Amino acid sequence: MKKKSALKLLFIYNADSGARNAILDSMHKVFRPSTYDCKLCDITYGVVSENGTWKKFRQNSRHDMVFLHRDEFTKKYASKFGYKFTFPIVLIEGENGLEVLVPTEEFNTIKTAHGLIRLLKERNA
Fold first, then answer.
1. Residues 77-95: pLDDT tens digits?
2. Residues with Cβ within 8 Å of residue 22, at least 6 apart in sequence
3. DSSP letter for each residue of the chain
4. Which residues lie closer than 8 Å to 20 by C-beta, 6 or more apart?
5. Alpha-carbon span 64 to 6, nearest angstrom
6. Tens digit of each residue's pLDDT (9 = 90 or more) over 113-125
7. CB-based burial of residue 42 (10 Å sphere; 0-12 exposed, 13-18 middle, 19+ buried)?
């Protein structure tokens, strides 16, 4: 098994956790894709399963990757540290706390899994 680095990437969805929310999100993707608010969900997952290109990249990454819904992130991090972020977002968790790797505004311009992968590689993530 390959060794992961100390760098931890946090991917935060602009969606809440739970089966009900997952079903509603999938329906939203199908019926009103232009108004769907989570570009991370859209890029990394289809209607029912993980995007194959993204899954391969994720599995072969040298970094630890953690995926949280916004309610999970808020419960785990924001209450402790007072972080205020917009979502979706990619953060780096390190010795100095959380740093933004891909802000929401930039994330929302990414169109495909290949685009996200290219951006992460450019930033050595």
1. 866 666 788 899 999 998 8
2. none
3. -PPPPS-EEEEEESS--SHHHHHHHHHHHHH-GGG---HHHHHHB-SSSB-HHHHHHHHH-SSEEEEEEHHHHIIIIIHHH-----SSEEEEEETTEEEEEE-HHHHTT--SHHHHHHHHHHTT-
4. none
5. 8
6. 999 999 999 988 7
7. buried
Cα distance from N-terminal residue to C-terminal residue, the chain: 19
Residues 6+ apart with CB under 8 A from 55: none
Distance CA 84, CA 78 (A): 7
Q: Note if the pTM is more than 0.85.
A: no
Cα–Cα distances in angstroms (integers) from residue 79 to residues 10, 12, 93, in the given order: 16, 15, 16
* Per-residue CA distances from 105 to 30, 35, 88 (Å): 23, 16, 9
Q: Which residues make Cβ contacts (< 8 Å) with residue 29, sequence separation at least 6?
A: 36, 41, 42, 47
